[in-house]
Write a structure and sequence with these properties.
Blueprint: E1 2-4, E2 7-17, E3 22-30, H1 45-63, E4 71-77, H2 85-100, E5 104-105, E6 110-112, E7 115-117, E8 124-126, E9 133-141, H3 150-164, H4 172-191
Parallel strand pairs: 3-4
Antiparallel strand pairs: 1-2, 2-3, 4-9, 5-9, 6-9, 7-8
Helix pairs in contact: 3-4
């Protein structure tokens, strides 16, 4: 929770996916009255908070013997996931806002799982139903501009679906995301011939 003169101004939550050394932005929320605050040379409070998130992710990675994370990824609900015009506009605005922060859209078919727990072994399994929310993944590269490659996209999918959500490697949502990445790699190979 972020306070400004003892008033709650916003909230950020994030974590480091250790195995892939990737930051995951779970949420950024700034109350409207505080969004335009210029803070320590930053244009707005959200810019300051993103930099503080990155700094903490670097500390977390170092404390586990890792180099600085290669990126910070966020899931954003897609406008196509709803028929409500107000929600569509809101989702589009959120995606645009993250892009203003420097996040780049990742070309992968991705759904946030609606999870159920397997009673036999306690492992999470996604529900392969309409309950899985289509999401756009956006990433802020922390080490240079970075190259969006199939390897990078697979690392992001692993960090989110396997490491963060705890889905098994053979879960339908993991397979669907990886298949969309494979098609991207196949399309690049086809265009080189």
């Amino acid at each position: 929770v972020v306070t400004y003169h003892d008033d709650p101004a916003g909230l950020v939550s994030f974590k480091l996916a250790l195995r892939q050394n990737l930051g995951i932005c779970l949420s950024i929320g700034i109350r409207p009255a505080y969004r335009s605050i210029v803070w320590q040379g930053y244009r707005r409070l959200s810019d300051f908070l993103i930099q503080k998130m990155i700094g903490q992710l670097e500390i977390d990675a170092a404390s586990h013997g890792n180099p600085s994370p290669f990126g910070l990824v966020v899931e954003v609900e897609t406008p196509s996931g709803t028929t409500d015009p107000v929600l569509k506009k809101s989702r589009l605005h959120l995606s645009e806002r993250y892009q203003e922060y420097g996040f780049l859209p990742l070309p992968v078919t991705y759904h946030e799982p609606a999870c159920v727990r397997n009673p036999d072994n306690g492992q999470l399994l996604s529900q392969a139903t309409e309950d899985a929310e289509p999401m756009q993944l956006l990433m802020l590269f922390l080490q240079g501009q970075g190259c969006i490659s199939p390897d990078l996209l697979n690392r992001v999918v692993d960090a989110l679906l396997v490491e963060h959500y705890g889905l098994p490697e053979d879960d339908l949502l993991v397979r669907q995301a990886r298949e969309s990445i494979k098609r991207i790699g196949d399309d690049k190979n086809d265009s080189n011939h």
